[in-house]
Amino acid sequence: MTYLDSAATTLQKPTAVAQAVFSAMGRMASPGRGGHKPAMLAAETAFACREAAAELFHLEDPENVVFTLNATHALNLAIKSVVKPGDTVVVSGYEHNAVTRPLAALGCQVKVARGPLFASQATLAAFDTQVTPEVSCVICTHVSNVFGFILPVEEIAELCRRRGVPFILDASQSAGTLPIHMDELGCAFAGMPGHKGLYGPQGTGLLLCRAGQETATLLEGGTGSLSAKQEMPDFLPDRLEAGTHNIPGIAGLLEGLRFVKRKGEAEILRHERALVRQTVEGLSAVPGVTVYAAQAPERQGGVVSFNLANMDCEEVGERLGRMDIAVRAGLHCAPYAHQSAGTLETGTVRVSFSAFNRSADVKRLVDAVRGMTR
Questions:
Q1: What architecture is domain 2-10+264-372?
Q2: 78, 266, 308, 364 — which has fewest CB within 10 A?
Q3: What is the pTM of this model?
């Protein structure tokens, strides 16, 4: 199979990830639930994973790394720690439903800082206009999951610091390729999946918390700490990690983080951008294909969308799937992004890369799309 859907989840993982998962299932128990060797080994592995994440994302205290089920879980924790029902919140015009649906559930007044696709300065200007005194929080995706548009989050974070507004970063499509410096950003939270650019198993995610940041629980239960009390602990990570940990997943995520550290975020990004450029050039030469690409390559990550004239995007995706070429078609759980780009009625076919894709994968995709136009 030619797998080009890593924005949903990376399918190809480093060998060490699967080995770690298998090993943990036979050797590790529940961390914090015993003094025996299997429990202690699980605790050591969990802390090593926190340390690896804290180092990669420049977070001083590993205890402020919280394990979650996925990025959606992490973002719900972040949003419901900062935002109260009815609050006014500013988001970008490229947000995923993992951000917008929790805000809708809270009955928030949502102001959209909308800018044209790949227009960084216009997007920043929109945030400057929308972040007014009544705003209680700003939330922004680092990279659009539909178009690969890299938003100017460093400048947006600095704007929030100047105006004293908490900032939440959705790093779902950037973790593992773009630098995320928590200490410099000063954001309240950053949420991310473990199973995409960090190459961990599905069912893993991370919430990075600023030191001293107040947090609200989504779940209450056992933590292995302060068991005599009926209230959740007031310290991290225990406060946000009720119940038994996904230790096999965490063990695999640790190896994924180590892979990213060894290979280097910059090298992974360089590789993915080279494949995006090849895709853009190849598909742009096919009659009837519209490709959504940045003129400035530094504004686009390892994701690119396209449409084929006179053919529904879902049909394109289905036909490619029958040829064992895995892409994603539709709205990609991000209607705001399609509203901003003018593709809400059509959706797009999305191609997304990982460190394991090669030039031959792009050639096979382009040849397949060209065959549909004949």
A1: Alpha-Beta Complex (3.90)
A2: 266
A3: 0.97
